[in-house]
Design a protein that fits this description.
With 146 residues, the protein is an all-beta fold. It has 1 helix and 13 strands, in the order βαββββββββββββ.
Length: 146
């Protein structure tokens, strides 16, 4: 398991110890599918943004992100950033702000979103937009009578 915040700022290199290609800027997340879809990194002296699909990532290790040989840039997906985003339920209730997210570095599957109000399992995510991360409201608890 890795955290999105742990990956940001890591060097991006070619698999097998090639030259440094850049530095991780962010990870694009598709909240509806609960996966990391793309890696964005800054490259070159002009620090241009390069976007590659998550499938091009061979290893997202603690010291660097390694890209598979022949990894090609993709058109940039929508630039919604998960970290720092407000959290709203599908009922319109505020549920804090996203602090981080845990994901499987091999598959890119989100495990949980860490917010100022606690942990949300990834299966509750519905969508991510300019305004907020939208999550499925927790089911109402029914009172038990004896």
């Amino acid at each position: 398991m890795r955290l999105l915040s742990e990956v940001r700022g890591l060097p991006v290199v070619a698999r097998g110890g090639g030259p440094r290609l850049g530095t991780v800027a962010s990870l694009a997340v598709d909240a509806a599918s609960g996966t990391v879809t793309h890696l964005r990194f800054r490259a070159g002296r002009l620090r241009r943004t390069v976007v590659v699909p998550w499938a091009a990532v061979a290893v997202a290790g603690p010291g660097a992100v390694e890209l598979r040989p022949g990894a090609a840039a993709d058109p940039a997906p929508p630039g919604h950033t998960l970290l720092g985003r407000r959290v709203l339920t599908d009922r319109g209730d505020g549920r804090g702000t996203v602090l981080d997210a845990a994901f499987d570095p091999e598959t890119g599957r989100l495990i949980a979103v860490l917010t100022t109000r606690g942990e949300l399992p990834a299966h509750r995510l519905l969508g991510l937009g300019d305004h907020a991360l939208v999550v499925r409201a927790a089911p109402a608890r029914t009172a038990r009578t004896s």
